[in-house]
Structures are given as C-alpha cells and as structure tokens.
Specification:
This protein is an alpha/beta fold. It contains 15 helices and 17 strands. The protein has a 6-stranded parallel β-sheet with strand order 5-6-4-1-7-8, sandwiched between helices. It starts with a helix and ends with a helix.
Length: 398
C-alpha cells in the first residue's frame, strides 16, 4: 500500500489532503473527558500542515443515525485539535454541503479544517455500497483534482463506511503513520511474539469476545478473564452469580471452552459485589462461590489480582483488552488498576487493545509510556486478531 511517505515524495504543498481520523472521544456535555484519540491523530495532521498541505479532517462522533444532532457536533473536537496544533481549526457546518465546500475552498497552505460529523449524512454508514459511494464522490469533487486521501483512523478501518472505504476509491489513497504503527504492532502479535504470551480480557459480554477468544486460544499461553463477562464463565462452572450480568445463551459455549482449554483459561477466585450499580453502593469482597443472591459482581477481587499479576509479571508478551471491572466508579476500579500496574511492572512487550482499556489507563493515572503500545482501535484490533480482513486496510492495498 502507498504510505504517507509516498505522498510526501510526490509533494503535498498546496494540495488539499483529506485525513480520515478517529476522533470519537467521550464527552460530558461539551467537555472532552479523554482526548487520547485526538492526541494520537495529531502527528499525521501536524506533519501534513507543516509541509504546506491544505488539511481537511473527516471524523465521526457517536451514533447520530444519519441526521444532524447538535449534541454530537465535532465543535469541541475541532477546538481541542486547534489547541494542540496551536492554530485555529475551522469547522464546516455540514459534511458535503455548501459550508463544507466553502471551508475547503477557503483553506490556505498549512491550514487545517474539519468537516462536521460524517455520520450526520446517512450515506456514511448506508448498507448500500452505491449510496456510500455517492457521498464519497461528492467529497472527492470538492477536494478537487489535486486532492489526496490519508487513512489514519485505525479505530474505523474495520467498518465499510463512505469516509473509510469508498473515498479511497475516489482519491489517491495513502496509509497514515498511525495506521501503519497499529498494523506493525498487530503483525507482531500474530507472528512469533516472545513467550509466555498472555491475554487479559475483560468487558461486558462473552459474545463480543468469543471470536477473538477462539482465535487466540491455540496461540497463547494463558487468557485471564475479568470484567462482567467472567460471570457467564462462572455460571458455566455451576456457581451462583446473584444479579451479575449473565449471557444465558453463552453458558454452553463457555462450558465447551473451559473443557477444551482448562489449562489456559483463568477465572477469578474472588470478586467485589455490590447491592446496586452505584459508587455509593454497599460492597463486599467475596470468594466466587459466595456471591450473594440479588447482589452484582462489579470487579475482580484482590486474590484474583495477585494471581493474575503473577502470570503477567512473568510474561514475554501481553495483550490487554477490556477492563476488569466498572473502573469509572471508584469502589470497582482496583481490579483494573492492579492488572494494568502489573503489566507496567512487567518486562513484556505489552499492547493495550484500545477502547475502554485505553481510557482506563488515562483515567486511573497510569503512565502511558509504561506500555509498549496503546491502540486507538479496540474493535479493529480484535477483528485483526480474529483473522478478519479490515475493509479500510484492504482498500489501500488495491
């Protein structure tokens, strides 16, 4: 595939360059609570601007369902990107309408502008390829004959969307530095990584992680299960789990996995339970065989943290995806903190698989440089490890 270096070799000064970034950051009203994805996108955008390109950023925020939603405007994102760049980032009022066209036409060399949330146009995520293609064509037309496209939003490359796939068919397309860095790390994980290879998996649902679990089990030495998904595994072992999250239709699958891979799958020995889902709830730490009726398990306990940490400290490679508990609430954050700290303390090649895990690192104040790599794309990382083709990458190879 062509890379950003190839684009620079051709020359970018004075050319409009569309950068698809993943700037889907969490918001509290108009306040960005974690700007990690913006900072991760900054190097490619800044590099293009410094070389004199007319940079147009395309991104989405949330799920506005194809219609403008003021609460999901990219205005706070454009403002934060401008702060980090040290220059104003103009935000178009639409995606492909008159404001987008005039904003792009008004760009001077070295300036950066942003289109409004691409998901405000229903064609961005349309199931019909032709509809997505028409949106991409409209964007390409106002980018002009000298326009180019840089795919740098790794968090969306597993999606068949207009600004990810179809636009790469309309403009000369290049892989950005962030995408290349993410792919290099994932290729290392799927090659011959240093042993032992340990995976820490959390999150809510077994069904969300089943494909990656089954793909990784033959390749890894241990999978440490946490998060709400652990309770379906515990139920599969015949334990009572109170009112903890349960995927009843996954119990038989969990029984099979445990029977086939008892030597690799580790489950919690103790958990933190609460009488309600609240930071003010009554809590107890109990062994997994002692979960109280009508109480909810919301974190792994200290015995489990220590057992898992022993495995992590001796690992050669660690992949972590999904928090161990409801880390956003203080009473249920220690499991995630303990596992993350153990990874930091290890000498392993360590990859944080994006999403909530990356947010937890920052929210809990852990050193980002304590991990070898923090991915910006949880879903994309998992699908790559499952062996799936990523449409936004495949189109760059053509």
């Amino acid at each position: 595939m062509n890379t950003l270096d190839d684009l620079f070799a051709e020359g970018v000064a004075g050319r409009p360059v569309l950068v698809r970034a993943d700037l889907n950051v969490p918001l509290d009203g108009d306040t960005i609570t974690d700007d990690g994805r913006i900072r991760a996108s900054l190097p490619t955008i800044a590099r293009l601007a410094a070389a004199g390109a007319q940079v147009v950023v395309a991104a989405h925020l949330g799920r506005p369902k194809g219609v403008p939603d003021p609460s999901l405007s990219l205005a706070p994102v454009a403002a934060r990107l401008g702060e980090l760049l040290g220059a104003e980032v103009a935000l178009a009022a639409d995606v492909v309408g008159p404001s987008a066209k005039s904003t792009v036409d008004g760009l001077v060399d070295g300036a950066v502008a942003m289109l409004e949330n691409v998901r405000f146009d229903e064609r961005e995520t349309h199931k019909v390829t032709a509809a997505r293609g028409m949106m991409a064509l409209e964007i390409a037309q106002f980018m002009g004959p000298e326009g180019a496209f840089v795919s740098d939003g790794f968090g969306v490359v597993h999606r068949k969307q207009a600004s990810v796939v179809e636009i790469a068919k309309e403009l000369p397309a290049y892989a950005g530095d962030l995408v290349l860095a993410e792919l290099a790390v994932l290729r290392r994980l799927t090659g011959e990584p240093p042993r032992p290879y340990v995976v820490a998996l959390g999150g809510s649902k077994v069904s969300d992680k089943l494909a990656v679990i089954e793909s990784l089990l033959p390749k890894v030495d241990a999978i440490l299960v946490g998060g709400a998904m652990c309770f379906t595994f515990l139920a599969a072992e015949g334990l009572g789990i109170g009112d903890s999250l349960l995927e009843a239709d996954m119990i038989d699958t969990c029984k099979r996995l445990l029977a086939e891979h008892a030597d690799k799958i580790m489950l919690p020995a103790d958990v933190v339970i609460a009488d309600e889902f609240s930071a003010d709830a009554n809590t107890h730490t109990v062994l997994v065989a002692q979960i109280r009726e009508h109480w909810k398990g919301l974190d792994i306990g200290p015995i489990t943290v220590e057992r898992y940490s022993d495995v992590l400290r001796g690992a050669g490679t660690v992949f972590w995806n999904g928090p161990m508990g409801v880390f956003e609430l203080a009473p249920f954050a220690e499991g995630t903190r303990g596992i993350a700290q153990s990874i930091v303390d290890s000498e392993a090649f360590s990859v944080v698989g994006g999403g909530d895990s990356a947010a937890a690192v920052r929210l809990l104040g852990l050193p980002e440089d304590g991990f070898s790599h923090i991915s910006t794309g949880g879903g994309a990382s998992l699908e790559y490890l499952e062996g799936k083709d990523l449409p936004g990458i495949a189109v760059l190879d053509h």
